[in-house]
Design brief:
single chain; mainly alpha
Length: 132
């Protein structure tokens, strides 16, 4: 039965078996890659389903934050206007009441010092009206 088999026939048989094993290994490798891709697709779907509501909530939060920042900007503008008005009012008060008030205070100080007792004489100083 095997008497007609030559060395070339055996080499071709070994080559055919090697190709069959190679095809089987490549098929199992491609099958594993397909399962990995299926699991990746499922994981990606779950992640997308979980992330999408979070992104919607984040968008709402950013929108509300922008509204609050607009309100704070309005408040800041109003406070700046109030500070400007307070500065103008202080300047007006200083110009209208402050200068006359300083003059009145200086006048009353001068009157008090004139009406007060004369200051004591310094040692070695001559009295006014003395002949020396």
């Amino acid at each position: 039965m095997f008497s007609d088999v030559s060395l070339g026939d055996i080499a071709l048989l070994l080559l055919a078996l090697s190709v069959a094993v190679l095809v089987f290994r490549l098929g199992s490798l491609i099958g594993k890659a397909g399962r990995i891709l299926d699991e990746t697709q499922a994981t990606l779907k779950v992640t997308t389903d979980n992330v999408q509501p979070t992104l919607v909530k984040l968008t709402d939060t950013v929108s509300l934050t922008n509204d609050q920042l607009a309100r704070v900007d309005g408040i800041t503008t109003n406070v700046g206007a109030m500070a400007t008005n307070a500065n103008a009012l202080t300047s007006l008060f200083a110009a209208t009441v402050g200068q006359p008030l300083v003059k009145v205070a200086a006048f009353t100080y001068a009157v008090r010092s004139v009406l007060a007792d004369p200051p004591p004489a310094r040692p070695g100083a001559t009295e006014p009206g003395s002949g020396s």
